[in-house]
């Protein structure tokens, strides 16, 4: 029976692989034998990156209070309590996606554990997630000498990343753009050979025409699996694989994913701003897997960050990419009738003919940044003139039940949009990684604030969470205060606030922030303004009312509001009064602004 291909259903969020890799780094240079396979899994438990199903009551405190240090010995006890039939297998399963994606070489009988050059770049502080997964997925192929799961005997011969590009490119020439969630989930994991691409294009077009889509899917699954009765689980698995593959693909920035905030519906297409690079890749590679006679050759290939060869290693192809980007930006400027400042004109219209390779690569990065700036500027202009969208954001912020179903990155985007339309900021900078159109491709990394806000009079960070449980103060409190302190150190001459936003704020969270505001965190008091999404929506309601009257409040109005919440709260005797005071302050501020 055939099987579909997948990347890693063990780790749904690709960003988590970085933490798995960080733990494996501790064992680098050692043999990945039985003992280290178990040790690796125990280390994952110790770092709370893996939570076994059976947690005895006496150990649950380590998961309820993540500030408690869990010793290796305790993690080992938790591991042993599981009574796994094959304990080392757990470590092998956890390391498998790291090996598969070329971040490590860790396998029994194949020498010491190695973190590859690409893996070390992934662990670097200022890593580029798009570059990391682009290089990684270019290497992912079936069959390969390390995997018996997807063999040539079973019909596999594919580099999925390239083959799916070919599939979508051919579909786009015949029909509407891209693939929707169902099409991607049914046809991409089952595309196991590059020679099937043409056949799959016809299947997708046929699927679009059919009225009974469920029947079509079941018949297609029977044909693929080569069985007469297809269990529902096998079809639902395809959707799990499809969603997982999409998450990895969109990180590369070579695929554009339009996704609803809840993550239920999405459409995937080739990224228009990388049209030139995609065309060059498709001209160079047809999706056929590379052949390796011996395992050592494959291991060398996995370890070599320069492989496979990219078409833009030729300088003339780099020039074409730069020119394509320039043309796209120029077309956008003309279409939107934008006026560019002199310094931007000099960047856009400079000659590339005398540039060497490094200069061209830097210039392309500059153009991508410039292109994103223009799109974000246009987005804000459209937001400010779209009163319906502002009303929609207000409604969403007040619907706490719906918000809890949001994808984390979509919640961060929602708050970013709100901050951008509230007043006259200099810059609102979300730290989630973005595609070339400013859409989030993942949530913000754990070592940075979610959003940075720059105003003339003050600066702020904004931390957002969908966590409303009793663990909110544990999982959000310390990180928020640490991010704020780091930001304060970076901007010593400025007045710094932190705006904390959640659908609901737990009493313990109020308590922890109140202590930081009234007394201190690590020796110095901080300026933290906690607000529920409903309270934050009031700011937008005031803005909307002002816009309808032809006026809007400034960041100085916002400063007075934040300052009062922080300053007056120091006079309160207990944290339980703080939430009441914040609500009262919001209402008073609202009446004052409306009266102006």
Distance between the termini: 73 Å
- The name of the CATH topology of the largest domain is Restriction Endonuclease
- Which CATH architecture of the largest domain is right? 3-Layer(aba) Sandwich
Compute the CA-based radius of gyration: 26 Å
Estimate the global geometry from the Cα principal axes. Answer: globular
Biggest β-sheet strands, sense, barrel: 5 strands, mixed
Spatially, the strands of the biggest sheet line up as 6-7-8-9-10
User: Can you count the helices?
Assistant: 25
Instruction: Please write the CATH class name of the largest domain.
Output: Alpha Beta
Number of strands: 10
Low-confidence stretches: none
The share of residues in extended strands comes to: 5-15%
Mean pLDDT: 91
- Structural class, judged by helices and strands? alpha+beta
Counted up, domains total 4
Helix percent band: 40-55%
Provide structural commentary.
By secondary structure, this protein is an alpha+beta fold. The chain has four domains: 16-115, no CATH class; 128-311, no CATH class; 314-382; 386-595, Restriction Endonuclease, CATH 3.40.91. It contains 25 helices and ten strands. The strands form three sheets. It has a five-stranded mixed beta sheet with strand order 6-7-8-9-10, with helices on both faces. A three-stranded antiparallel beta sheet has the order 3-5-4. Strand 7 and strand 8 (459-464) form a beta hairpin. Helix 1 (16-25) crosses helix 5 (87-100), helix 8 (160-174) packs across helix 10 and helix 13 runs antiparallel to helix 15. The chain starts with 15 loop residues before the first helix and ends with a helix. The mean pLDDT is 91.
């Amino acid at each position: 029976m055939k099987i579909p291909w997948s990347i890693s259903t063990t780790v749904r969020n690709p960003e988590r692989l970085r933490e798995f890799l960080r733990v494996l780094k501790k064992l680098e240079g050692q043999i990945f034998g039985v003992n280290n396979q178990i040790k690796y899994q125990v280390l994952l438990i110790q770092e709370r990156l893996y939570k076994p199903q059976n947690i005895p009551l006496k150990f649950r405190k380590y998961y309820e209070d993540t500030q408690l240090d869990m010793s290796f010995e305790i993690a080992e006890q938790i591991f042993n309590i599981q009574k796994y039939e094959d304990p080392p297998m757990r470590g092998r399963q956890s390391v498998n996606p790291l090996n598969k994606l070329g971040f490590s070489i860790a396998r029994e009988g194949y020498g010491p554990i190695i973190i590859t050059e690409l893996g070390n770049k992934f662990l670097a502080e200022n890593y580029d997630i798009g570059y990391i997964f682009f290089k990684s997925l270019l290497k992912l192929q079936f069959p390969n000498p390390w995997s018996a799961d997807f063999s040539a005997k079973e019909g596999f011969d594919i580099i999925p990343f390239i083959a799916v590009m070919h599939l979508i490119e051919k579909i786009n020439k015949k029909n509407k753009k891209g693939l929707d969630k169902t099409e991607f989930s049914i046809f991409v994991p089952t595309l196991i050979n590059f020679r099937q691409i043409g056949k799959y294009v016809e299947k997708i077009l046929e699927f679009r025409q059919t009225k009974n889509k469920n029947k079509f899917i079941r018949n297609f699954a029977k044909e693929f699996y080569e069985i007469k009765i297809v269990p529902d689980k096998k079809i639902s698995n395809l959707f799990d694989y499809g969603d997982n593959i999409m998450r990895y693909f969109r990180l590369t920035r070579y695929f554009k994913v339009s996704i609803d905030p809840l993550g239920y519906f999405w459409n995937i297409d080739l990224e228009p701003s990388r049209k030139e690079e995609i065309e060059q890749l498709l001209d160079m590679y047809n999706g056929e897997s590379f052949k390796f006679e011996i395992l050592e050759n494959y291991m060398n290939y996995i370890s070599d960050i320069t492989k496979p060869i990219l078409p833009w290693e030729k300088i003339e192809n780099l020039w074409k990419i730069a020119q394509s980007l320039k043309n796209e930006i120029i077309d956008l400027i003309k279409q939107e009738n934008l006026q560019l400042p002199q310094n931007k004109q000099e960047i856009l219209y400079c000659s590339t003919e005398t540039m060497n390779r490094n200069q061209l690569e830097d210039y392309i990065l500059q153009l991508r940044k410039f292109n994103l700036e223009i799109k974000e500027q246009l987005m804000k202009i459209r937001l400010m003139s779209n009163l319906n969208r502002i009303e929609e954001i207000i409604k969403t912020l007040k619907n706490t039940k719906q918000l809890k179903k949001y994808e984390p990155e979509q919640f961060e985007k929602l708050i970013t949009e709100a901050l951008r339309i509230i007043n006259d900021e200099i810059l609102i900078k979300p730290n989630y990684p973005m595609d070339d159109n400013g859409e989030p491709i993942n949530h913000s990394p754990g070592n940075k604030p979610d959003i940075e806000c720059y105003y003339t009079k003050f600066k702020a960070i904004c931390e957002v969470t969908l966590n409303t449980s009793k663990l909110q103060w544990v999982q959000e409190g310390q990180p928020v205060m640490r991010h704020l302190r780091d930001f304060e150190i970076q901007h010593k001459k400025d007045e710094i606030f932190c705006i904390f936003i959640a659908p609901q704020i737990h009493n313990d969270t109020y308590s922890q922030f109140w202590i930081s505001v009234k007394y201190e965190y690590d020796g110095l008091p901080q300026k933290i303004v906690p607000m529920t999404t409903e309270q934050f929506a009031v700011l937008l309601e005031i803005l909307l009312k002002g816009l309808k009257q032809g006026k809007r409040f400034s960041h100085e109005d916002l400063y007075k509001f934040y300052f009062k919440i922080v300053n007056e709260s120091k006079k309160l005797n207990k944290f339980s009064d703080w939430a009441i005071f914040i609500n009262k302050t919001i209402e008073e501020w609202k009446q004052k602004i409306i009266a102006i």
